[in-house]
Design brief:
Distance between the termini: 17 Å
Shape: globular
CATH topology of the largest domain: Rossmann fold
Radius of gyration: 21 Å
Structural class: alpha/beta
CATH architecture of the largest domain: 3-Layer(aba) Sandwich
Number of domains: 2
Helix content: 10-25%
Number of helices: 7
CATH class of the largest domain: Alpha Beta
Order of helices and strands: EHEHEEHEEHHHEEEHEEEEEEE
Strand order of the largest sheet: 3-2-1-4-5-6-7-8
Length: 381
């Protein structure tokens, strides 16, 4: 490996906590750890933590542990659900997934594909002592996670669900550390191959399954499912353009104007023919409480100020249900809100905003909110 390489590891439970140790020992590697959970007593039997870790956010505990292993390592901890992290902040040389939820796996596969970077996914079945690894590399004929496993649909979060946290939560596997350690080693090995440029020996478009109980090894090959897969397999890596979001003070209207300039060659497009969306972050347009109180709003569902908004009457959390959400803003429908700043609706630096023309051509442009006006189309952060 030459130069500084960057790795995101999402989930530091049974598999991820052990895989992280391997990453700290890879020379010249910068590691970002993403996990929203806190260490619990029940984690000690299957995860690489100590009793002293109980009550500490997992991301922070493992970041400190990796610095002890390698004081020279560059480690960043993010104690959030990965779906809440701005897409631009996930930019790395490879994303490693050690999560329980099929829905999160599908999200990571899509996020990595949009950024044009490999995604390595690991999973285990502790009861049957199975360890599984898959590698997804964006390409014109490559398969994504949804091509290989359509079952993630059973884990879909419906818009009538009361909260994203509960919907994301999955029962603890309670798997033994030995099986997690096996998957962690496989995850780290494939990661090292990606960082070392060994594309010819990567497990791309294959599922590697080790049955440790019966000493068997299975390899399943996959192809892109062009007929059933609901993902469009488009990569934005060469097309994401930076826009100075002015510390969050930039109005939504100015973002649309910037998009119109790129799309219309000088701003010839009318703002009324544009839509705006933030990658995988739906907007709440109305908040409701179980007591019947409702309030108009405009903000990203998983972010402040929408997240944690309480009812003034009964002090319960208010949520946006079903038709109270919108995947994108239509400039004619939400014209009265376009003077709102990006920060006021919950946007963060690193978010990637897509501005789309609703004309016959239906073109779009992807803008990354940043303080730096530099071309990031070929840059890894």
């Amino acid at each position: 490996m030459t130069g500084l390489k960057s790795v995101d590891i999402v989930g530091v439970g049974n598999i991820g906590s052990q895989a992280a140790s391997h990453l700290a020992r890879m020379p010249g590697t910068q590691v970002t750890i993403i996990d929203p959970d806190v260490c619990e007593v029940s984690n000690i039997s299957g995860q690489e933590i100590t009793p002293a870790a109980v009550g500490v956010p997992k991301a922070e505990f493992h970041a400190a542990r990796l610095r002890e292993i390698n004081p020279a390592a560059r480690i960043r901890a993010i104690a959030l659900w990965v779906e809440q992290v701005p897409l631009g902040m996930l930019r790395a040389d490879v994303i490693l997934g050690a999560v329980d939820s099929p829905r999160t796996r599908a999200y990571l596969s899509e996020a990595a594909w949009r950024l044009g970077i490999p995604y390595v996914d690991a999973a285990i079945d502790g009861e049957d002592m199975l360890a599984r690894i898959q590698v997804f590399v964006p390409g014109p004929t490559s398969a994504c996670y949804a091509c290989c496993d359509h079952r993630f649909a059973v884990d879909t979060v419906f818009r009538c669900d009361p909260g994203l946290d509960a919907a994301r939560a999955t029962p603890a596997t309670q798997a033994p550390s030995t099986v997690g350690g096996l998957a962690a080693a496989l995850l780290a090995i494939e990661c090292a191959k990606v960082l070392g440029g060994e594309e010819d020996v990567l497990a791309t478009d294959r599922r590697i399954l080790i049955d440790a109980r019966h000493h068997q090894h299975f390899v399943t090959r996959y192809e892109r499912d062009s007929e059933q897969c609901r993902f469009d397999h488009e990569s934005w890596s060469e097309d994401i353009l930076p826009v100075d979001w002015k510390g969050g003070a930039l109005p939504l209207a100015d973002v649309l104007a910037c998009g119109a300039e790129y799309l219309g060659g000088g701003g010839s497009l009318a703002l009324g023919s544009l839509t705006l969306e933030v990658f995988k972050q739906p907007f709440a347009t109305l908040l409701r409480c179980a007591c019947g109180h409702a309030e108009d709003c405009l903000g990203l569902v998983g972010r402040l100020p929408v997240r944690g908004k309480t009812c003034p009457g009964c002090d319960q959390e208010m949520v946006a249900h079903a038709f109270d959400r919108a995947d994108r803003l239509f400039t004619d429908e939400h014209a009265h809100s376009l003077n709102r700043s990006l920060a006021s609706v919950g946007c963060l630096e690193g978010d990637i905003v897509t501005v789309t023309s609703t004309s016959e051509t239906s073109e779009d442009v992807h803008l990354e909110l940043t303080e730096k006006q530099e071309d990031r189309r070929s840059q890894n952060v």
